[in-house]
Amino acid sequence: MLPTHGRYGYVGWGERARWAWPGGARLAVYLGVNLEHFAFGEGLGAELAPGGPQPDVLNFAWRDYGNRVGAWRLIELLDELSLPCTVLLNSAMYDYAPSLVAAHRARGDEIAGHGRTNSERQSVMGEDAERRLIEESTAAILRHEGVAPMGWLSPWIAESAATPDLLAETGYRYTLNWCSDDQPVWHAVRGGGRLLAVPYPQEVNDIPSVVARKDSVAQFCDMIVDDFDERLRQVRDGVAQVMGIALHPYIIGQPYRLRALRRALSHIAARRDVVWVCRAADVYRHVAALPEGSVA
Known about the structure:
By secondary structure, the chain is α/β, with parallel strands linked by helices.
């Protein structure tokens, strides 16, 4: 037998139970907006251009554009289309750009945990250090928002063998780390509990698309529309799906990319009669209330 994580078993798509999202919709759509802050001159950092010796001013400034400009323009677009979002928050943003987090709070957006900073990766930490990372990030969100976050996306989507257990023990209800399905999946955690894996996209995600594959913004936004339209066709089989759209303001918040995104999100907003546009926490709440055995 091959080594296994032991978190969930195999249930093929043709074996899924039939159930619906609120209003009878079979497709749920949520936007995951990543608000990230990076250390200057050290640690990890997304390289949009080939990195040089530290301090890597080009890539630091490029990323910082998202917090200073791109994220604000994205909020204007979401307001224009009356779209909610789930904010995936580095807790360092409370010190660096508190007014940006406050703007999302004022919209009623969900604030989910995304570590302290994307300058570090929790998968290389010992369990005690990883627990401190999760607890510190969680405590900052609770202190500023008045409620603890329900969901977590690891910086760099990096997990140790203990990450789901630590998340559940810290009070988290769902994780966005696993992209293994088009439906939420219950993961077993130590102590007999469970943690819901809400699908988070690695395809309809501006970093793998624009940065890694070098797709144009037209290709990325066509991808959003085609993914959405194909899923609407697929859910005719009665099996509910989740579609996530992952956005990073330093990428998608560039003006010409934002213009293309407006077209793609307008296409989705126009079909609110047949889809459920929601936040990731709403997905969790709905699934948690379903009869036992409805979800794999």
